[in-house]
Structures are given as C-alpha cells and as structure tokens.
Amino acid sequence: MTYALEVKGLDKSFGSASILRRVAFSVETGSTTAIVGPSGCGKTTLLRLVAGFERPDAGIITLGGRVVAGKEWIPAHRRSVGYVAQDGALFPHATVAANVGFGLPRRARTRAKIAELLEMVSLDSSYASRRPDQLSGGQQQRVALARALAREPELMLLDEPFSALDAGLRANTRRIVADVLAKAGITTILVTHDQPEALSFADRVAVMSEGRLAQVGTPREIYSAPIDVPTAEFIGDAVVLSAHVEGERARCALGDVAVTANGVQGEARVMLRPEQIEVTADGAGVAGTVVDVEYLGSEMLLGIRLDTADGVVSERVTVRRFGATALTPGERVGIRVLGTGVAYGR
Ligand SMILES: Nc1ncnc2c1ncn2[C@@H]1O[C@H](COP(=O)(O)OP(=O)(O)OP(=O)(O)O)[C@@H](O)[C@H]1O
C-alpha cells in the first residue's frame, strides 16, 4: 500500500491549550479524504501542520514516503503540497493570470499555460485579465485552485474552500473541484464542518472531536456504523432510544428492533437514522401521536411521541417523510423500523 500521507502521534498546543492530541491516520495515494468536525476542534491546525505552515510539538508527518516533520523538518515551499484556504487568499490587486502564474516557475508563466490551468477549473481564458473582485465567489475559489494546481502538487489540501459560497454555487463549485482533482489523480484532503459535504465529496471520512480523530472510515461506515453516540449525532440526524439488548435484538420504545450489538448487552442505547423509521399506511406497528411537523419542501420531519408500552419509557422520535400527504399535530399514526440499528453502552 502506498500512502501519500502518514501522520503518527501528532501533538500540537498553542500556549497552554492542547489543540491536537496523538492524531494518527494515513491517506492512500489518489484518494479523497474529508476531515469533518465541529468548529474549533483542530481541523485547520492539522492541515497547516501537514502543509508545513506550523511545526508539531511531537509526532511524525510523512509525505510520499519522505519524513517532512519529525526527525527532519521540511518547510512548506519544499513540500509538494497545494493549499486552498476558505477565502481563496488571492492577491487582490493582481490579475487572475498573475495570481495563477504565481504558482508557476517564472519561465513557465506563458499565456498558453495560464489558459490551460484556467480551463482545468472550467474558466474561460478571457478571465485572465480580470482582478479577483470582478469574479464571483465560486470563480475566485476556482482561480485559487488553479494557482494551487500550477505547482503540480502530490497532495492538495482544501480548507473549507466552499463555505463562503451560497448553496447552489457551493454544490456546483464542489462538483467542478472534485472532478478536476479526480481527473488529475491528485490525492486530496478536504476540511469541512458540513457533514453532507464530507459524505458526498470523499471516499474516506475522518471525524474529529476535541483534537482527536474519533473515527476514520468510508462515508457509509461513518453514517451507518458510527463509533459512538456523539459521532452518530454529529454526522447526521439520529434517533437514540433507551433499550435492552439481548443478542442482536433490542427492546425499545419502537418494539423489538434488529441491531448491530458490537458486544453490547443488557441496558443500552440504540441508534437509528430517521429514514429507518416509517409511518405505515394502515396504522400498523407501534402507535404514537404526531407532536410537531417541520415542513422542508421535498421532505417533512415529524416529531412523534410513542405510546407507552409495558416497562418501556415513552419516547419522542423524529421521522423523515418524503413527498407524502401532510400529517398534522395530534394525528394518531403507526410506525415501524426498517433495517438494523446500532447498540451502544449506557
Ligand atoms: N496560531 C494560533 N495561536 C493560538 N491559538 C490558535 C492558533 N491557531 C488556532 N488556534 C486555536 O486552536 C483551536 C483550533 O483551531 P482550528 O482553526 O484548528 O479549528 P477548526 O476545527 O479548523 O475550526 P473552524 O471549523 O472554526 O475553522 C481554536 O481554539 C483556535 O482558537
């Protein structure tokens, strides 16, 4: 297995504040990894250590088999790493051509090369003479990417590059960027606090929490088998119920539910995603009352208070419902569980 990046035992503090603690992970060559976590958990710090803008207090960073931090220290300009920041950080008074050309050796700064780089990020070469403030936010981010691509990096680091863009532009720019990087075969790490963005952009997702990596896995693993309840709740909507687990079954307010127990038995909690809970057409299943309805256009989020069954506490669950007829608070419904939940200790 060849790794574009290997990080081991990485520690970083600023003053007395410990920001990263024993961070370790590997990134396969040619892959796309998203690092996701709440604001302030240390994502940007990790990226800046990999880029070489900061030195770690302890630990080893290896890029393409070469140690760049540890026994050796290789500064940012001698690492084959591209970096695109949240605001693009373009030079405001320079033209697009000058901004992109900054990433090229002087003799390679030809009009043809700049046009080729702009074309890679789906920008017409006629933009070359504009200044950044004459471009939209999405276009500015694509120029920043072109500038980073000019250096032909082995590893591209994207630090929330889409977060300043509005929803439509954001999805479109994300698709263009993902496409460019995949075509160029560049190993990419994206930092984001947007969970759907992490799940859709990357083939591996690393969830960060308070300076540690809580879990690294495929988007599907992270969503359907999160390591603990906080990770489950961070990465998507989660319904978490008290349960009693025996074998691979959990008895909870939603009845007898199949679970992945992971060795958890007895008093426990069970986690389901809202789309695993279905309102039945004929009222069959566990009975409950709709308590609130959040209308979101193509879907509705229903809050349902379940009837109390013997020995089971009454609980409220959130159910996602697509394009079906509206339900209103007070209506009685039957609900059932689809698929398998995940059990966690108390
Ligand atoms: N140069 C610095 N000096 C002192 N503290 C810093 C420095 N850089 C970052 N920090 C602190 O480290 C913590 C982690 O910051 P970091 O930017 O890595 O988080 P993040 O997960 O990227 O957050 P966000 O999603 O909000 O960008 C924050 O509390 C921040 O204030």
Automatic annotation (TrEMBL):
Give the record's keywords alphabetically: ATP-binding, Cell membrane, Ion transport, Iron, Iron transport, Membrane, Nucleotide-binding, Transport
The keyword Membrane is annotated on this UniProt entry = yes
Q: Name one GO molecular function term.
A: ATP binding
Domain called ABC transporter: residue spans: 5-235
Write down the SUPFAM superfamilies for this protein, in alphabetical order. Answer: MOP-like, P-loop containing nucleoside triphosphate hydrolases
Which CDD domains did the record assign?
Answer: ABC_Carb_Solutes_like
Q: Which Pfam families is this protein grouped with?
A: ABC_tran (PF00005), TOBE_2 (PF08402)
Q: Give the protein's recorded name.
A: ABC transporter ATP-binding protein
Q: What is the lineage of its organism?
A: Bacteria, Bacillati, Actinomycetota, Actinomycetes, Mycobacteriales
